[in-house]
Amino acid sequence: MAGLMEKLGLKPGVIYGDDLLNLFKLAQQSGFALPAINVTSSSTIIAALEAAREARAPIILQISNGGAAFFAGKAISNEGQRAAIAGSIAAAHFIRSIAPIYEVPVVLHSDHCAKKLLPWLDGDYFCANFVNELAGSMMDADEAFFREHGVPLFSSHMIDLSEEDIDYNIQTTAKYLARAAPWKQWLEMEIGITGGEEDGVNNEDVDNNSLYTQPEDIWNVFNTLSPISRYFSIAAGFGNVHGVYHPGNVKLQPELLDKHQKFVSSKLKLDDGNSKPVCFVFHGGSGSSVEDFQTAIEYGVVKVNLDTDLQWAYLVGHRDYITKNIDYLRDQVGNPDGPNKPYVPSPSSPTLSCLVTDTIVDRNKKFYDPRVWVREGEKTMKERVLQALKNFKAVGTI
């Protein structure tokens, strides 16, 4: 059976526009979703891409405001979103450069952009006093990239005004979608609050009723955005919470998404009871059950955000490596095998052959070389991404 790359005519690497729309619609029809992996470094990017390549599946790589600032370097001030803009653009160029060799379709996305972070997304559009000497904003970089290459730099962005008044949320999102429309750039929006805390946006104390979006609000969004562009998705609240909590503390109701689809279908006078006119997004995926994931996917979710679980997975590899080899990591010189006992690497060792000086190096060096311990974090993160791809029924789809 032909995979989605053949069916949709996709090339490996970053996709956008009609290719992205067709991918999401095929995902709905086929009953799978794409994990959206928050990345903060070249290492986490590689771990996610490696998982997608091994699973033969498409993947979404997304960078948050804080993750982008980290990518630029913690020594750089983020005043005026300077570090976040530079870091997100740098990450985007890195992903565009490296993704094709992993031979999978990649969606390049920016994560939650709350009202206070709008200068990061589009500094000049609503924030006339914002000035950044490197680039005005991510969307300015998109526009410049589009003029040169015919595609935007990012496949998609996420604007999160869910904490604001509903009318302001929808109308402001519409203005951003209008700017992105000529580039066929996707825009994700959120209506209904996701609980918990994520990247400096804290909704831990909100009323639980705010976690559940009403069908009328979904229709309002769909009806407002559809005349502007087809390229949008909605993160609707159905009890979602960022972070990981003890079982029973989070009560998801993914069946609400089915009601939303039916409500919008009725407004559009679609007779097919299985129509899924809305592309939904599942926020706060870490810690959720496989049953909740698959129910949400059945009702039209095409993207599932994962961050907290992957932060933990990346740590586990480093933690286990360091605790296992701690005696070799206490000092640069000196180890349990004796203070003067050197390590002579195998002539066939591809990892360490370039480290040899006069054919002998200290044994500890093979343990504290970053290429060794950083790689251990990539391995455990990759396994968690593979688990997500399996849970979301995306394995083998390309």
Automatic annotation (TrEMBL):
Pfam families: F_bP_aldolase. The keyword Transferase does not apply. The keyword NAD does not apply. The active site is at D111 (proton donor). Catalyzes the aldol condensation of dihydroxyacetone phosphate (DHAP or glycerone-phosphate) with glyceraldehyde 3-phosphate (G3P) to form fructose 1,6-bisphosphate (FBP) in gluconeogenesis and the reverse reaction in glycolysis. This is Fructose-bisphosphate aldolase. It catalyses: beta-D-fructose 1,6-bisphosphate = D-glyceraldehyde 3-phosphate + dihydroxyacetone phosphate. GO terms for molecular function: fructose-bisphosphate aldolase activity; zinc ion binding. Zn(2+) 1 binds at H112, H242, H283. It comes from Triangularia setosa. Its cofactor is Zn(2+).
